[in-house]
Amino acid sequence: MKVLIIGEGAREHALSEALANSSEGYRVFALSSYINPGIRDSVIRTGGEYILGNINSREEVRSAINKVNPDFGVVGPEDPLFHGAADEFRLNGIPVVGPGVKGAEIERSKVWMRHLMWKYKIDGRLRYRSFSSLEEASKFLMEFGGSVAVKPAEQVGGKGVKVVADIQAYLSKEKRRALSKSVDEIGSLVRNDIKIIIEERVDGPEYTLHVLTDGHTYLPLPLAQDYKHAYQDGIGPETGGMGSISGPKNLLPFITQEEYEKTLGIIQETAKAIESETGEKYRGFISGQMMLTDLWGPTVIEFYSRLGDPETSAIIPRVTSDFGHILQLAAEEKLSKAKLEVRDEPSIVRAVAPLGYPLRRDLASGKILELDLNALREKGCKVYFGSVAYEGGRLITKGSRSLEVVALGNFDEISRTIDQCINMISANTELVYRTDIGRRLSEQIEKAEIVRYSYVNRAKNSSLGSSADWSPNGGLW
Question: Is 297 in a helix, a strand, or coil?
Fold first, then answer.
């Protein structure tokens, strides 16, 4: 069978490798804008073909489909989904993993997502206001008396999120003035009329549950946690993700089985609400980026319409069943036949990027990486290639996270293993990565316990999701 995968990053490397390693004997074909060395290996090993083109162009996706005539497809990143890549497969009668444009709106538009949750009264929802006028958004920030998160109204690759917490009341006005000045910058990231969404701020440990669905059956994957900020200890601008952890088993050290099941219920309700709203079954990955809060317990921060990256690199190496075949079953709407088996031991992923990422991608581009995959494997690490191209036998950086280094085992032991493995990678520039990922988990466990005590008491009093604010000028939600 032939499978066509759309995408070019570490997530697609992991997916293409799972397909190439499947006992089903798939021939892997790929459409990317550059040659990812990991995807290239999967293509060569299985006798497929690598096609270069614009993954966000529906016409070029159609051309690749016509050229390959695949038995099924897999769309990895969000932008091709927003542009109708999965719809193009289905219009040609080809099964595919990935929602259509209507379903992918759950990730593309934060406003649409929040509206949907309130309309269908889905647990874990946050109060919000959306603004087309940047002036009105700034005015709301200056008048409202509570803690808020200010975000671009649509998906812009993890950029632009700003938070103000009024823990220090005497700094409130200064913080609000600074935040209101950021509104123009945040709004400039958005192309559509609604520019800004302001949400009530919540606090707690974050985690992600990815669920694969064919519109009938829901297959939850192990939990993962993403580390968004660029620098050590969660400092610096938000990125696509500088690392991730998963496990042990299906959980994380700070999330209970009950919270896992509650989160799954929220995601299932959301997928069904999308179907009710759009008239189309949601088919593909739907992933809840969650926070455990005292307001709701499991609380929705945002949804993905695909697998997260780097969370994919933390999850797939832990799967012992044939994940490539599971993808086929999902595409063909036969997911009820799938069985997911996962290693008990946890994993850690650390992303490695060239100096300049994330703010100066021009400086992070065109650098040469050198690594010995066999030596890294012997040391206990697996590597997924991200924003790096195979050009003339060399690995050339493309400006974003170049590598994702993975290890499985005891958290403390594999943290040290990844430290050693990253030291074995060299480049003609300084490499940027975080060494704290997978460490200091006791702090998150303690934080979760405090939050859990509060939301469990709320549940006993039937007050989950209820909150109140004070504002001198009545600037309430």
Answer: strand
Give me the half-sphere count of Cα atoms (radius 13 Å) on the Cβ side of residue 227.
28
Q: Decide if 422 contacts 350 (C-beta within 8 A).
A: yes
Provide φ and ψ at 235, rounded to 5°.
Answer: -100, 150
Distance, in Å, from the CA atom of 112 to the CA atom of 210, rounded to the nearest integer, reads: 20
User: Which residue bears the tokens 């609604």?
Assistant: 194
The whole-angstrom separation of Cα 376 and Cα 420 is 9
189 touches 134 (CB < 8 A) = no
Cis bond upstream, residue 205 (ω within 30): no
Q: What is the pTM of this model?
A: 0.93
pLDDT truncated to tens, each residue of the chain (477 aa)? 999 999 999 999 999 999 999 999 999 999 999 999 999 999 999 999 999 999 999 999 999 999 999 999 999 999 999 999 999 999 999 999 999 999 999 999 999 999 999 999 999 999 999 888 777 877 787 777 667 888 888 876 655 566 655 544 444 555 555 555 566 666 666 677 787 888 998 999 999 999 999 999 999 999 999 999 999 999 998 899 999 999 999 999 999 999 999 999 999 999 999 999 999 999 999 999 999 999 999 999 999 999 999 999 999 999 999 999 999 999 999 999 999 999 999 999 999 999 999 999 999 999 999 999 999 999 999 999 999 999 999 999 999 999 999 999 999 999 999 999 999 999 999 999 999 999 999 999 999 999 999 999 999 999 999 876 655 555 556
Closest CA to 274 of 335, 326, 211, 334: 211
Inter-residue contact 355 to 429 (CB < 8 Å): yes
